Amino acid sequence: MDDPYQFGQIAAANALSDIYAMGGTPLFALNIVAFPRQELPLDILAEILRGGMDKAHEAGIHIVGGHTIDDSEPKYGLVVTGEVAEENLIRNNGAKVGDRLVLTKPLGTGIIATAIKRGVAPEVVVARAVETMTILNRDAAQAALDVGVHAMTDVTGFGLLGHLLEMCTASSAQAAVDFAALPLLPGAVDLAEQDAVPGGTRRNLDYVRKALTLEGEVSELDQLLATDAQTSGGLLMAVGPDKVHDLIARLTEKDTPAAAVIGEITGEGPAHITLRKG
After folding, report:
1. What is the structure's pLDDT at 278?
2. pLDDT value of position 156
3. In DSSP terms, which residues pair with 239 in a beta bridge?
4. pLDDT computed for residue 93 by the predictor
5. What CATH class does 90-277 carry?
6. What pLDDT sits at residue 2?
7. CATH topology for 4-87?
8. Which of 20, 32, 119, 270 could, after both became Cys, cross-link 137 (CB 3.0–4.6 A)?
């Protein structure tokens, strides 16, 4: 990400997501900064921190301190402390047979970020990806709490299927995902076809293959999109079939980046995912 202010915003939104994914409310945050002070002007660092601070304020919290080190490349993140009432705690281990799987942000940020590094990402594609990554998962999490979802996690570095596999493992469940239902960022498919695929995405696919069955005309490219390593991705929810329409309506009302039913929990047993198409 070339814009330091946006870099800070995305990092903060990404860090806050862990609190929202468990139904919690953030309380405060600490900055963690690595910066090459001899190579980059401090104005860049100031913009990164401003982006993080503005996003923290949007979440209703303050950044109360932090730690900085001199490093060869800029890195920025936050340690976020939050709280949640026990009755509101949402884990990733409560998925039940028949639950529908709902995703609240489109996929493809890892592929687009790789294309940005290579200088091949169109500006309009970058703008849409940045817009998505800077959106907090707060409103989506509130919709999940209001409806009463059974399980939830945020989709980040392990990609959609990686985090779904974690949910299935924790819930002793099996799932099916419809590739055609997956929301994808504009440009993600074209850039993946140009091989702008990060190493983390390929490692994610290698990891989930052990528990993955393909059904229909699922290509290697489709699998990479479904395992693309996300930054500040959306929430993946398992919700009862009697509540899914209410959840989608609430997400739509809150204007979340996506409100897509992408599959369902199909059975109990050892964790397994079927990715189907057609």
Report:
1. 86
2. 97
3. 100
4. 98
5. alpha beta
6. 81
7. 60s Ribosomal Protein L30; Chain: A; (3.30.1330)
8. 20
For tokens 């949402």, the residue is 90
* Alpha-carbon gap, residue 170 to 127, rounded angstroms: 36
Separation of alpha carbons 117 and 191, rounded Å: 12
Phi (first) and psi of residue 70, to 5 degrees: -80, 130
Instruction: Return the DSSP state at 4.
Output: H
For the chain, where do the domains classified as CATH 3.90.650.10 start and end?
90-277
Question: Which residues, given as ranges, of the chain have pLDDT below 70?
Answer: none
| 20-66 pLDDT tens trace | 999 999 999 999 999 999 899 999 999 999 999 999 999 999 999 99
The number of CA neighbours under 13 Å toward the Cβ of 153 is 23
**Distant-in-sequence contacts of 250-254, Cβ < 8 A, 24+ apart:** 250/143, 250/146, 250/147, 251/102, 251/104, 251/140, 251/143, 254/139, 254/140, 254/142, 254/143
Chain centroid, CA 77 distance in Å: 15
